[in-house]
Amino acid sequence: MKSTDNFKRAKTKRNNKTLNLLLIIVLVLALILGAILGVINFRQSRKMDLSVPYDINRNLPIDTTASDGVSTADGFASDLCAAPASLPRDGVAMTSGDEKALLFNLDTSVPLFAQGIYDRTYPASITKIMTAIIALKYGNMNDEVTISKEDVTLEKDAQLSGMLPGYRTSMDGLFHALMVYSANDAAMAIARHVGGTVENFVAMMNDEAKSLGMTGTHFVNPHGLHDDNHYTTAYDIYLMFNAAYHYQKFYDTMQTNVYNLNVIKPDGSASVIRLDSTDKYLTGEKTVPQKVSVLGGKTGTTSQAGSCLAILSQNSYGQPFISIILNARNKNILYDDMDLLLNQINQ
């Protein structure tokens, strides 16, 4: 009898130990689960809400007290180059300290050279890169456009294609005249046709500039003829050019060295206007440095802006680069200094 009681007590003791062990295991598992859930909740609370696309106009602060109404926040993207206002490079010196210049490696997002890239300056016809962007985003290249008197009534010595009021051509023709010959009448016709009015088109240009993070830019016309309130920076031009060349139409057109513009005159007769590129690299007037391929870009010249050039190029390894020079004293200096930048891309 005594033996039976001892057996029962031993069995009860073993059952209690087993139960205690199970309780400990459950408690440990509960603590581990709680810790895991806590970490997950913390991480979720630290994440950005990516349920909707990023909107620079909604998410970046705007300085409403600024007289020009320009956003004061810097644009950002993981694949963009960031650089100080000035970044010297051994063996590289622009002819003048007044020039604004940069050289960026687009493959690595590494800046190689910078000089005054955030200084406000005038873009001249490099403005037309933005005109091209708006035309591609909102225009139809198959549309027919009739040239108006407003399109050709511009300041003396403005670069004009030779079209007259009443001439008809396609949006595609105007786009080529804009990019290849830097025709101001083409810029005006595009703006009128796409925007309804030139003023509305310019507003579209400024909206697009904000969306690209071009916080130092303000446009007042689609062609770049001088106006004190029409300005930009070398870095903003980089942002604009970087966005533009991803359009296949822009990429193809900027490499064109000569274009035949087909027009219909008011009497119904057809005519062709030959338009040569304003880029001396493309026309062969200026020799490209060895082991460098110039893919194209945009020129600009006014007395206030000086000689300007934005170039997309490749080195011998196929890496792409953007190089920009603004406010050179003349075209000879412009291309000599651009050669100096292009010679860096294989080093």
TrEMBL record:
Ranges for domain Peptidase S11 D-alanyl-D-alanine carboxypeptidase A N-terminal: 100-329
Source organism superkingdom: Bacteria
UniProt-recorded name of the protein: D-alanyl-D-alanine carboxypeptidase
Keyword annotations from UniProtKB, A to Z: Carboxypeptidase, Cell shape, Cell wall biogenesis/degradation, Hydrolase, Membrane, Peptidoglycan synthesis, Protease, Signal, Transmembrane, Transmembrane helix
Similarity comment text for this entry: Belongs to the peptidase S11 family.
Pfam short name (any one): Peptidase_S11
Active-site residues, Swiss-Prot/TrEMBL: S125, K128, S182
Transmembrane segments: 21-42
Biological process (GO), any one: proteolysis
Amino acids binding substrate: K298
Taxonomic source organism: Blautia liquoris
InterPro entries: Beta-lactam/transpept-like, Peptidase_S11, Peptidase_S11_N
Keyword flag Cell inner membrane: no
GO MF term list: serine-type D-Ala-D-Ala carboxypeptidase activity
